[in-house]
Amino acid sequence: MRFGITKAVTGAAGLALMAVVSGAGIAAAQNLEPAQIEHPAADSWPVYHGDYTGRRHSALTQINPRNVSGLGLAWAFQTNQTAEIKSSPLLVDGVLYFTVPDNVWAVDARSGHQLWHYHRPSTQGDHIGHRGVAMYKGWLYFTTPDCHLISLDAKNGHVRWDKLIADVNRGYWTTMDPLVVKNHVIVGVSGDFDNLPGYLRSFEPEKGEVQWQWDATAPAGTPNKTTGGMTWMTGTYDPELNLVYWGTGNPTPVLNGTTRPGDDPWTCAIVAISPDDGKLKWGFQASPHDTHDWDAVETPVLVDGDFHGKPRKMLMQASRNGYFFVLDRTDGKDLLTVPFGPVNWSKGIDAQGRPIPNPDKEPAPDGRIVAPDEGGVTNYRAPSFDPKTGLFLVDAHPSWSLYFAKPADGYYGWAGADYDVWGKSQIEAIDYQTGKLRWVHPVGPGSGAGVLTTDAGLTVTGDSTGNLLILNTADGKTLWHAGMGESMQNSPITYMLDGRQYIVTGSGGVLFVWALPEGAAGAAKGR
């Protein structure tokens, strides 16, 4: 472990050098019990999505349409790294924990002062990004590019144990934020460039022993069976049903499906799994027999409410393939399947609510024009569900692409090529009852920002030119914006400390934290 020096920007005070404080003061009280994850308080953001539902919605209302014009920078933290911040910070007991590949920081959530910094250099694996850490009691859990799960002491960043998730030499890597459910630390894997099976693995939080593993696909080399189904984004959890919901990635070889006939389960799927033993309860394939790299790892958002006049426990996903799904999460039955962007690759919807792939749109030697492009109508960026309006908010990317595959590309890894033709980015507000777009807000040619909504009627996101945007959730109109320098690549969070609401965003290697002026925050609290 290496401790360093970092820069912090605090209010209008400018740049100040802050020495690392290891395990002192505020960090000494760090503890997170499972019940606190299940019922988060306003002064916490204890899991990747804020709570187990994946809705990324907050009940906080101090910052609202009437006073948002007074929002300003409370502090900013400079990581001094070239890697972009893609993680959603965790907030526990007044401390923010966030990551980039090979690095974890603990920062005072009130001031931005660094408490400790953990650095573990790795030369293997893909350093494409990192989503954040998970926490159980006083311990943090961090995945590495070379496929290790490391447990740190939350008070000081000291390593407790180091366990292997997968073999980086076979082509696996890890970028994800683990999901803690009861006494299970659940992690997934990445590895698109080789014909490898994807899986979930559960670790015991105290000593790191493996509890179970669920395999999305058969072992490599199984005749007429696919590999793939990587599990590289964080799932959600329903405590009442005791089911974990997870999205899986594309099959491999990616663009050539001739060696893997059929639907290729459980790739490009939403699955429901018991957290206690890893047994599959049900699965739903968003893209049967995918040949376009359209992972279904996007957030499986859990919503309880009426659907067409009947109370339902629903799961909603805006999937990379361009379709918006509403499922009954008790059994995986489809309630609604509609496109939320240009889609020309399917022939319709089957009896199970799944898109029917059109063989004429599979990659070919002379090329095929396909919508959407390889990046999909959405991707890793987190959506949000606003219960007041019934709107599902997502950063969408309507797009077209040109796909190729020929025998010389072989039957391993990517096995073809694709080229973007056209695309744009926009925030879409989807009515979950019908799938129709209530409003659209353009955000430039390409955006990587997730979405946060609040009970005050605010939608927090970013655009492709480096602006933080706060929109009116009801109609999508801009209420406030501020330049951050680079486009946001993470998903915003919010919290309340000492009667003051904060909004946290990332831009490049800088974490920005926003709030109303202290006097205005106090006045808003009193109303």
Principal-axes shape call: globular
CATH architecture field of the domain at 165-379 and 398-439: 8 Propeller
The main sheet comes to: 6 strands, antiparallel
CATH superfamily caption of the domain at 165-379 and 398-439: Quinoprotein alcohol dehydrogenase-like superfamily
Beta-strand fraction estimate: 35-45%
Protein described:
Strand 9 and strand 10 (139-143) form a beta hairpin. The chain has a six-stranded antiparallel β-sheet. Strands 3-36-37-38-39 form a five-stranded mixed β-sheet, with no helix packed on it. Helices cover 3% and strands 41% of the residues. With 527 residues, the protein is an all-beta fold. It has a domain at 165-379 and 398-439: Methanol Dehydrogenase, Chain A (8 Propeller), CATH 2.140.10. The protein contains two helices and 42 strands.
Short key terms for the protein model shown above:
mainly beta; 527 residues; five-stranded mixed beta sheet
Brief account:
With 527 residues, this protein is mainly β. It is 3% helix and 41% strand.
Task: Please write out the topology.
Blueprint: E1 5-10, E2 15-19, H1 34-38, E3 57-58, E4 72-78, E5 90-92, E6 95-100, E7 103-108, E8 114-119, E9 134-136, E10 139-143, E11 148-153, E12 159-164, E13 179-181, E14 184-188, E15 199-203, E16 210-215, E17 227-228, E18 236-238, E19 243-247, E20 251-252, E21 269-273, E22 280-285, E23 301-307, E24 310-318, E25 323-328, E26 333-339, E27 346-349, E28 355-357, E29 368-370, E30 384-386, E31 391-396, E32 399-404, E33 417-423, E34 425-431, E35 437-444, E36 452-454, E37 458-462, E38 467-472, E39 478-483, E40 493-497, E41 500-507, E42 510-515, H2 518-526
Parallel strand pairs: 3-36
Antiparallel strand pairs: 1-2, 1-4, 4-42, 5-6, 6-7, 7-8, 9-10, 10-11, 11-12, 13-14, 14-15, 15-16, 17-20, 18-19, 19-21, 21-22, 23-24, 24-25, 25-26, 27-28, 29-32, 30-31, 31-34, 32-33, 34-35, 36-37, 37-38, 38-39, 40-41, 41-42
